[in-house]
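hey all, quick one before standup. I had two proteins in the batch that finished overnight and I want to keep them in one place so we stop losing track of which output belongs to which input. First protein below, input sequence then structure tokens straight from the run.
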Amino acid sequence: LRAIRAVERADVALVILDATDFLAEQDKKVAGIAHEAGKAVVIAVNKWDLVEKDDRTAQDYLEKIRRELSFLDYAPVLFISAKTGQRITRILPEVFTVANEYTKRIPTRVLNELLREALLRHQPPAHKGKQLKVYYATQIKVKPPTFQLWVNDPALMHFSFRRFLENQLRSAFGFTGSPIHFLVRKRTKA
């Protein structure tokens, strides 16, 4: 309950995991609360000083985080130790970076140029002989960045194409640590 209230008040959620009791169910629930609330997220793996390491340890932990918390694949991950102070000074700069990404606004003209280029490289999948046509896009809000797309038929917007568009936005504009939402509307003739 405290986690839910804290997330509601926050713009950026710092999800702290225990490296010695890695990814407990409660950790996944708290991370899910932040994601579902549309909050920006930074993941910090604490007690990193207590983990026996080799040259693959951090990469192995990161892969496990990405697998178990796949819905937070946009969140940066820091390996820290509150006890020794290891990398503690990186937390606030990362939170500020993510907060800036969370409030980033993309001009409509630039967004539509990116959309046109993306559609030339990768056509949306057809369904029952009908092809999705994306006419126009605009960013309608920040916190989280939300984009409205006008299309010929919203039912044709497959999750894989939505993911493709999200990846294009991240590649071009960053949005590190921030979820990206889409609203898909049918374009009506005026």
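OK second protein, same deal, sequence then tokens:
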Amino acid sequence: GMFLIMSAFGCNMYVAIDASAGERERGSLEPLLIQPVSRWELVLGKWLATVVFGLVGGLLTLVCLVAVMHRLPLENLGLRLVLGFSESLQLFLVATPLILFAGAAQLTLASFAKSFKEAQTYLSMSLLLPMLPGLFLSMKPVEPELWMAAIPALGQQVMTSIVLRGESIPMSYWAVSIGVSTVLTVLSLWYCVYLFRSEHFFKKS
């Protein structure tokens, strides 16, 4: 579960950096801003390009993880793996809202940087945040509760564990996880648009 969640942030990262701080550093962002395109359209285009890489990377990560897990001799350890096509599809659907939010959040965070290297530092440090729930659950397993679904990364980790136990994810978990991720995605994109509209913000470039 943690590897799948990390891919949601790692596969988005460099595209988000290049589409914001990278273009500021190269001087190619200002010509885009003077085109007859609304800031919302510009930001949405950059966000969609970012999340495409995130979705493809998440899918490839999932495929590799499934292939590896089926080759492990888990039966010798007394473990039973429930990971067929249906479970894999559920895991991908669980990760998708997080990938969409990660792309928006990383694009916004990278927009504050003046250079590619500076944005890389910011986003590399931010990768620690989605790792914390997985590390916490690995050291101290807890029973799933609905409030956990409202916390990005933690909710996906909990829902992933439910799938891997061969159980069905309650609809309330789906609703809370997707709802919170959608709201955070919209807020991140809105703030990114606000930054792109600010003349004072781009005087730093």
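Flagging for whoever picks this up: The chain is about 75% helix and 0% strand. The two ends are 39 Å apart (CA to CA).
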